[in-house]
């Protein structure tokens, strides 16, 4: 089968369609799985490694952020499959290194190494969708992927919480190594979506100059910053919730996963609705609506944590609404941003992903430096950056309609 035939079959949902969607969903889930699965073990890891375990998230996001900027032009030049194969190998090695770590410095180093490979998954999954589908169809496909990939952040904390009851936290990273190996094998069923004639022919050095063009593209950057600011807020919850739920409110680590998972159920439900909405409304309209709903939930969360009212119930309810909106925000902002720069989808996806996931560095550092021992720090960080996300969404131009 030729590349063009494979692309045609995928685009029309035949033969390789289901396999393609499942593999891309798994690739999209790599980031959340790599972090969410060990969230319940973070208090135990902090005691065992005698260090600030939040730095393992910071280190992962630093590696994730930087590496994407390299893999993007590489994928535009050589195609999507080769970087994915190399990335999965790096991920497996990094996961094994984390499992063998004995102090905080070692595990932070291997988390950075692990991220060098993990970042190829979601970045190139987005690029492959843009290779194949138009703007509205791409948003629908991204919503579909999010429904399936949401299994990872649901299963991850639940599995991690149960594992530390019967074994050590090291086993969690050995499991990630096994998952990475299975993903490496699955890539043999993934066809190349960027044919030779569409690849960037200029040298890689010239390809890296695309980042300047992207940074100066106002429409692309507004959508990208909208998603970036939203993810600063999302990572504030991901990083801060183990302390808030387990340490502050006394939730058992094995039950923490349920509180985390309920947010992903909301995301999945909204993603299913969004698959239909993208054919009826412009992406910009859906994005603005979703971000404004998330902003209201974030402001409620800040009020509750600042005033110390409502307890864990109000916090969980506000976070549920905030997280559910990701089912619209991620799909619409990504599709609209990549549609603005279709000729460099790999680099555009890389820059977007670098800012999106690198934004978690801001969250984890703010939490580490400014925490006052209460949920308030997490609450105001989420509120401030969700408001910033809303500002970006409200200033985008609605130039394209659904169709």
UniProtKB/TrEMBL annotation:
<feature type="transmembrane region" description="Helical">
    <location>
        <begin position="108"/>
        <end position="129"/>
    </location>
</feature>
<dbReference type="InterPro" id="IPR004812">
    <property type="entry name" value="Efflux_drug-R_Bcr/CmlA"/>
</dbReference>
<feature type="transmembrane region" description="Helical">
    <location>
        <begin position="350"/>
        <end position="370"/>
    </location>
</feature>
<feature type="transmembrane region" description="Helical">
    <location>
        <begin position="141"/>
        <end position="160"/>
    </location>
</feature>
<keyword id="KW-1133">Transmembrane helix</keyword>
<feature type="transmembrane region" description="Helical">
    <location>
        <begin position="20"/>
        <end position="41"/>
    </location>
</feature>
<dbReference type="GO" id="GO:0005886">
    <property type="term" value="C:plasma membrane"/>
</dbReference>
<feature type="transmembrane region" description="Helical">
    <location>
        <begin position="256"/>
        <end position="274"/>
    </location>
</feature>
<comment type="similarity">
    <text>Belongs to the major facilitator superfamily. Bcr/CmlA family.</text>
</comment>
<dbReference type="InterPro" id="IPR036259">
    <property type="entry name" value="MFS_trans_sf"/>
</dbReference>
<feature type="transmembrane region" description="Helical">
    <location>
        <begin position="53"/>
        <end position="72"/>
    </location>
</feature>
<dbReference type="GO" id="GO:0042910">
    <property type="term" value="F:xenobiotic transmembrane transporter activity"/>
</dbReference>
<keyword id="KW-0472">Membrane</keyword>
<keyword id="KW-1003">Cell membrane</keyword>
<dbReference type="GO" id="GO:0015385">
    <property type="term" value="F:sodium:proton antiporter activity"/>
</dbReference>
<feature type="transmembrane region" description="Helical">
    <location>
        <begin position="315"/>
        <end position="338"/>
    </location>
</feature>
<keyword id="KW-0813">Transport</keyword>
<feature type="transmembrane region" description="Helical">
    <location>
        <begin position="172"/>
        <end position="190"/>
    </location>
</feature>
<keyword id="KW-0812">Transmembrane</keyword>
<feature type="transmembrane region" description="Helical">
    <location>
        <begin position="229"/>
        <end position="250"/>
    </location>
</feature>
<feature type="transmembrane region" description="Helical">
    <location>
        <begin position="84"/>
        <end position="102"/>
    </location>
</feature>
<feature type="transmembrane region" description="Helical">
    <location>
        <begin position="376"/>
        <end position="395"/>
    </location>
</feature>
<dbReference type="InterPro" id="IPR020846">
    <property type="entry name" value="MFS_dom"/>
</dbReference>
<feature type="domain" description="Major facilitator superfamily (MFS) profile">
    <location>
        <begin position="1"/>
        <end position="401"/>
    </location>
</feature>
<feature type="transmembrane region" description="Helical">
    <location>
        <begin position="286"/>
        <end position="309"/>
    </location>
</feature>
<protein>
    <recommendedName>
        <fullName>Bcr/CflA family efflux transporter</fullName>
    </recommendedName>
</protein>
<dbReference type="Pfam" id="PF07690">
    <property type="entry name" value="MFS_1"/>
</dbReference>
<dbReference type="InterPro" id="IPR011701">
    <property type="entry name" value="MFS"/>
</dbReference>
<dbReference type="GO" id="GO:1990961">
    <property type="term" value="P:xenobiotic detoxification by transmembrane export across the plasma membrane"/>
</dbReference>
<keyword id="KW-0997">Cell inner membrane</keyword>
């Amino acid at each position: 089968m030729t590349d063009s035939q494979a692309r045609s079959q995928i685009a029309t949902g035949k033969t390789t369609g289901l396999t393609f969607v499942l593999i891309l969903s798994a690739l999209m889930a790599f980031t959340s799985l790599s972090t969410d699965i060990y969230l319940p073990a973070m208090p135990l890891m902090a005691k065992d490694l005698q260090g600030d375990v939040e730095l393992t998230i910071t280190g992962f996001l630093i590696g994730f952020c930087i590496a994407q900027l390299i893999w993007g032009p590489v994928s535009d030049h050589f195609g999507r499959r080769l970087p994915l194969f190399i990335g999965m190998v790096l991920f497996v090695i990094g996961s094994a290194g984390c499992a063998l770590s004995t102090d905080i410095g070692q595990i932070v180093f291997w988390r950075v190494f692990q991220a060098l490979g993990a970042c190829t998954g979601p970045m190139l999954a987005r690029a492959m969708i843009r290779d194949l589908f138009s703007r509205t169809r791409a948003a629908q496909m991204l919503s579909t992927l999010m429904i399936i990939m949401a299994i990872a952040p649901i299963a991850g904390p639940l599995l991690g919480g149960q594992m530390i009851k019967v074994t050590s936290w090291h086993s969690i990273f050995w499991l990630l190594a096994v998952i990475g190996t299975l993903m490496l094998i699955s890539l043999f069923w993934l066809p190349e979506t960027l044919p030779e004639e569409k690849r960037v022919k200029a040298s890689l050095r010239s390809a890296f100059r695309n980042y300047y063009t992207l940074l100066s593209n106002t429409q692309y950057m507004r959508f990208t910053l909208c998603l970036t600011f939203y993810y600063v807020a999302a990572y504030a919850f991901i990083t801060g919730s183990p302390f808030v739920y387990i340490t502050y409110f006394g939730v058992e680590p094995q039950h923490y996963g349920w509180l985390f998972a309920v947010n992903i159920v909301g995301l999945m439900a909204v993603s299913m609705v969004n698959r239909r909405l993208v054919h009826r409304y412009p992406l910009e309209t859906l994005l603005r609506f979703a971000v404004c709903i998330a902003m209201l939930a974030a402001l409620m969360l800040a009020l509750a944590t600042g005033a110390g009212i409502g307890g864990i119930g109000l916090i969980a309810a506000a976070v549920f609404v905030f997280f559910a909106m990701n089912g619209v925000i991620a799909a619409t902002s990504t599709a609209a941003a990549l549609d603005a720069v279709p000729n460099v989808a790999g680099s555009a996806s890389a820059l977007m992903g670098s800012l999106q996931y690198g934004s978690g560095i801001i969250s984890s550092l703010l939490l580490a430096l400014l925490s006052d021992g209460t949920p308030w720090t997490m609450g105001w960080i989420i509120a401030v950056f969700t408001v910033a996300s809303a500002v970006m969404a409200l200033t985008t131009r609605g130039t394209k309609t659904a169709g």
